[in-house]
Amino acid sequence: MGRRMTGRGQPVGRSEVADVRGDGRGFEDETGSVLLLTLGYVLLALAVIFVCVCATDLYISQKRLDALADAAALAGADGFTLTVSDGDVRAELTDAGVEEQAAALVDALPGEVSMVAAGAPDGVSARVTVAAEWHPPLVSVFVPDGIPLESTATSRTALR
């Protein structure tokens, strides 16, 4: 292809092309604007990805702690003692029995989880509370102590 020509057979210069667009600016005024927009969008995308990664990791950590609390409460509900009174057999839970069973399960699993409380509030249900520290995957340097997470679960005995 050749050079662009005006209607009179003269070559078109850069300033004449800018005038043809009608904005009155030259090409030099627009250099770098796309680069700044691209950098801004890249930073915004990285921030969104960072927040999503941290939120997902926090959600998964809380769900794991919930599952552990459920398992510990279920194990604690197995710490019942059978009592017979007036020919009726009942399964009764004691705080010591629930704590013993739940502590055995929590201690057997890997991780930095501690049992906060375990007991049988009504003699039929086992309630266990466990706690752990969550450390963000990308900024653990800025949050060295972590964020405390806690979960409580209740399980009832099947025998009445």
The portion of residues assigned to helices is 40-55%
Strand content: 15-25%
Counting DSSP H or I runs of 4 or more residues, the number of helices is 3
| Sheet with most strands | 3 strands, antiparallel
Helix-strand string:
HHEEHEEE
Helix/strand/pairing category: alpha+beta
How does the overall form come out from the CA principal axes? rod-shaped
Provide the spatial order of strands within the biggest beta sheet. 3-4-5
Low-confidence stretches: none
Radius of gyration: 34 Å
Number of strands: 5
Determine the mean pLDDT.
82
Number of domains: 1
Distance between the termini: 94 Å
Description:
With 160 residues, the protein is an alpha+beta fold. The chain has one domain (27-156). The protein has helices at residues 14-21, 33-77, 95-108, and strands spanning 80-85, 88-93, 114-119, 125-134, 147-156.
Brief overview:
With 160 residues, the protein is an alpha+beta fold. Strand 3 and strand 4 form a beta hairpin. 42% of the residues lie in helices and 24% in strands.
Produce the secondary structure layout.
Elements: H1 14-21, H2 33-77, E1 80-85, E2 88-93, H3 95-108, E3 114-119, E4 125-134, E5 147-156
Antiparallel strand pairs: 1-2, 3-4, 4-5
List keywords for this structure.
160 residues, alpha+beta, 3-stranded antiparallel β-sheet, two-stranded antiparallel ribbon, 3 helices, 5 strands, rod-shaped
